[in-house]
Write a structure and sequence with these properties.
The structure holds two protein chains of two kinds. Chain A is mostly beta strands. Helices cover 0% and strands 49% of the residues of chain A. Chain A contains no helices and eleven strands. In chain A, strands 2, 4, 5, 6, 9, 10 and 11 form a seven-stranded mixed beta sheet that branches. In chain A, a hairpin with a 2-residue loop joins β5 and β6. Chain A is globular and about 35 Å long. Chain A starts with a strand and ends with a strand. The mean pLDDT of chain A is 92. Chain B is mostly beta strands. Chain B contains no helices and twelve strands. In chain B, β7 and β8 form a beta hairpin. The model of chain B has no long low-confidence stretch (mean pLDDT 94). Classes of the chains: A mainly beta, B mainly beta. Chains A and B meet through β4, β5, β9 and β10 of A and β5, β6, β10 and β11 of B.
């Protein structure tokens, strides 16, 4: 079955530590995205990538970094510079990097920083 | 900048009745897409329906229909014959079709609880 996998589902880290969230897709989609969701709120875009080895900042990129070395993978690193990293993180992909194609979402990773 | 507003934080609906979820948007672009997503208690995001700004007919997908009123900048979701499984958060989102990257701007969501 094609889809998007995110691991782990729950992640706990101590304050000041960097942490990397995994996102893999086997849908052969060109574009991939990372969103953050805080309790009771909508999603906000962190980073997106339309093609391998290229990515762009979204609305809330500060304190985060990404890489896109393979088409299937788009890991997100939450650095110690992120002031309030505890949140639900969702990865998504789409067949085209244009505004007409729906985005398919992974199951998400809930990050808690202690 | 684009903005999506969902004014209903939560609502109850009786099973088998229809429910309308409000969504208004703000953009100066002429080419945009409007999406609705469902987020059940499992936290996954499920795509429901899409409407392009140049589509003349309202989009429909099974029990979901989108009431698109371009002049009023509204894109309300109508769920007909509500089922218990429709209980979830619903998000309206917008993208700019001609802009680089399929970036979605989301509203704050509406929580729907279907009563038996």
């Amino acid at each position: 079955d094609g889809g998007i996998t995110q691991s782990p589902k729950y992640l706990f880290r101590k304050e000041g530590q960097n942490v990397t969230l995994s996102c893999e897709q086997n849908l052969n989609h060109d574009a991939m995205y990372w969103y953050r969701q805080d309790p009771g709120q909508g999603l906000r875009l962190i980073y997106y990538s339309q093609i391998v080895n290229d990515f762009q900042k979204g609305d809330i990129a500060e304190g985060y970094s990404v890489s896109r070395e393979k088409k299937e993978s788009f890991p997100l690193t939450v650095t110690s510079a992120q002031k309030n990293p505890t949140a639900f993180y969702l990865c998504a992909s789409s067949i085209l990097g244009t505004g007409e194609s729906e985005q398919f979402f992974g199951p998400g990773t809930r990050l808690t920083v202690l | 900048a684009q903005k999506i507003t969902q004014t209903q934080p939560g609502m109850f609906v009786q099973e088998k009745e229809a429910v309308t979820l409000d969504c208004t948007y703000d953009t100066s672009d002429q080419s945009y897409g409007l999406f609705w997503y469902k987020q059940p208690s499992s936290w996954e995001m499920i795509f429901l329906i899409y409407q392009g700004s140049y589509d003349e007919q309202n989009a429909t997908e099974g029990r979901y229909s989108l009431n698109f009123q371009k002049a009023r900048k509204s894109a309300n979701l109508v769920i007909s014959a509500s089922q218990l499984g429709d209980s979830a958060m619903y998000f309206c989102a917008m993208s700019m079709i001609k802009a680089a990257g399929n970036k979605l701007t989301f509203g704050g969501g509406t929580r729907v609880l279907v009563k038996p």
